[in-house]
Amino acid sequence: MGNFLQKLKRYTGRTNFSRSIVTICVILVAIVFNAVVYSLTTIFGLYLYQPTELDFSLSASTDAIMASIEEEGGVEVLFCMPREELKTHATGSYLLKTVEQMEEKYSDAVTFRFINIITKMDEEGKFFDMTPFTKDENGNDVTIFKTSVIFRSDKAHRVLTSNSYEDFYFLNEKSEPLAYCGEEVFLSLMLWVQKDYHPTAYFTAAHSEIPDAALARVLAAAGYKIGSVNLRREDIPDDCDLLVINSPVSDFERGSGVTSEMDRLYEYADAGGALYVSLDPFLKTPLPVLEGFLKEYGIALSRSEIAGETFSNIVTDNAQGITADGYTLVGRFDTEGVGGDIHNTVLPYSDGNVLLYRCGALSLSDGASPLLYSSASSEIYASGERVGKDGNYVLCAKGTREGENGTSSVFVMPSVYFTASDAMLSNTYSNREFLLAVFGEIFENEGMMPYGVRSVKTETNLIEDLSLREARLYTVIAFLPAVALVALGAVVLIRRKYK
Hints:
CATH superfamily of the largest domain: Class I glutamine amidotransferase (GATase) domain
CATH class of the largest domain: Alpha Beta
Strand content: 15-25%
Number of domains: 3
Shape: globular
Radius of gyration: 29 Å
Strand order of the largest sheet: 8-7-9-10-22-21-18-15-16
CATH topology of the largest domain: Rossmann fold
Structural class: alpha+beta
Number of strands: 23
Mean pLDDT: 85
């Protein structure tokens, strides 16, 4: 027995043996790491997505929309650039990939023509008159570029006049493309030119409201025309179907002998006007006038008093949240009333919930209905102090108010980041579909909407839909083999040093 142990000791002390052990450990680490990544991907929704080729395939929801377009007589789409030139264009080549799929699958619903605007000839050598498209529906001049795209039906036409097809892309604040949204834009405008009536959404100005391009894009996808109105000096236009008050920094003015902002707002509400309101719960200066108006709809920002000062209650979720600070969390659908209607509308296209960041809590009274709740493990903080831990806080709501000439509806979201680009482009969360459903279910937009249409992301590394608890657990598991390998290496080096 003693001879065996001595031989074993001499063998294990050899360099070849140490290298063999290290090799075996590396293989084991690789196996464990792959197992962890597989479980994260299939069970908990962690996506490490690095495609070798961008996926331009059309969404399944396109079939229903195209069937509707065909039933209404079809649409013609005109490119002001020859097909071969479009194929080599840096951003236009993406559009052509979508066009080719639609040509193959939906030729009865849409026809594509490629015009050379210099010669006014199409692919078949036929002359094409561009004159009808140089004026919009209001008689204003329209400039046609090589990169213009024209949509037309028997009812209307629409010209996209962007210089580099940016209308088909989701851009960040630096005007850099985050994603290609061609399928959404094609479908939205095909539906738009087949409508007899086009609703209009007006953004209020003069209160440092956030110029939210993501919100405007979803509004456009829902068929709205976009405008702006300064209530300090002009009335709300008669064609306003939706008034958007997007995170104002200063309060609205009351009457003082002349027509004020609130006079105009009440006149709009009394006529049954619809409002979309987002509020920043971290705003240091309160907005008592606007918030008093919202209380008439049964909706108020939840607040707490700390050391004689009043602060908004901010929802955090350290157990089920997405980030370590708990400020990024998932809103769960209310399944009753209008919340249930929205949930049923969204469910066929997305089984995720709504991603929210730095969101306040709402207090509701008669006339208001919750749409989203936080989880049972969530808490609320005011000025950095925990003031509640009951969970299930209201994250956004619908309110109604009876006016002299109609019932006014309002959607209130106490978060600036609900329509952030990351949330709108997520294939895991339902922010985009939820917002489209709000337009349809709350504001009774009867137009068909492009639910479930995916965007082609230009970013290749995506990590979505992973709760904090699961992230901590599986991060530890993933690093354990590496730690063990380092420890083994240290033992081998020490043995060699003192051998």
